[in-house]
Amino acid sequence: MTIFTKKILVILALSFLSFLPTIALSQTIDSYKDSLRTVITPPNPQANQTISIHLESSLIDLSLSTITWSVDGKVILKGKDRRVLETKLKEIGKETNILISVNSPLYGSFDKEITINPTSISLIYEANTYTPPFYKGKALPSSESVVTLLALPRFIKNNGTPISSKDLIFTWKKEGVVDGANSGLGKDTYVFITGRLPEDTPLIEVSALFPEESLRGYSSILLPSFNPEIIVYENNPILGVILNKAMSNDNLLSGKEMSLVAYPYFFSGKNRESINFEYAWYINNEKVADIPQNQSGLTIRSPEGSGTSALRVSLSNIRKIFQVASTNLLVKYGE
Questions:
Q1: Which residues contact 164 (CB under 8 A, 6 or more apart)?
Q2: Rounded to an integer, what distance in angstroms lies between the CA atom of residue 83 and that of residue 42?
């Protein structure tokens, strides 16, 4: 090796060593900047909601730093150790841009930007339980009934264009566990079974993501099970079942006989005489014999003289032990 070659190697070595502090300093600056972290409360903010943003750092002593908060280009808060900002978000589809500037006496200045575009997800449910014809109310979930949830997201792009459910990635959770089989692109419905008892209500959560603009939404529901009911109506030979007037505890048997029919509410079944339904009729606490288990109707006849009879009908779902109901009524005759 010649003397000239040795000089070249020494010069290269010295140049590399002088470059190392610059590399180390650059890595240190990036580390300090990356250590800035924000915690937003609530974690899934809604439109027009006031949120709290908390600034944290594992490397920078923020208590000694001057922190400046700017919202949409306007300075809102500035001062030493100003680690928390409260601000109100805009409507859905309108971004809120927040710039956080940290001036540390030890490490220099660092900026962090966050953008929040609020979204919303509404959840509606449909219980697969029976209700009579023309019933104007909503079918309610009962013990161990099947419920279908539909997520109605409201996501709007930065350019104001609404985002369809088919373009969102849905993640469904039941009791904190992700249901991967029912999660994915466009999967905005979820089917589950309620608990046996009201206190067994499962927590169902759904989150939606639009990857192109990092838009996220979240919603959850605790849907309790309701007690099923059974209501008795008159089955008039001319008018048919009079569904607009339930039998009460004071009914007059004006003719020689009256036909009654029991309608279940919120039992799991496609019709009132499902093979899983077991009816039982009682007159003065004595069970009426020779009635099939799924017989929902009964004809009563007026005995001699006058008096009052106590009627009771009960219904149970033989496949779901907590789906039971009964009702009592009085029938007067001979007056």
A1: none
A2: 17
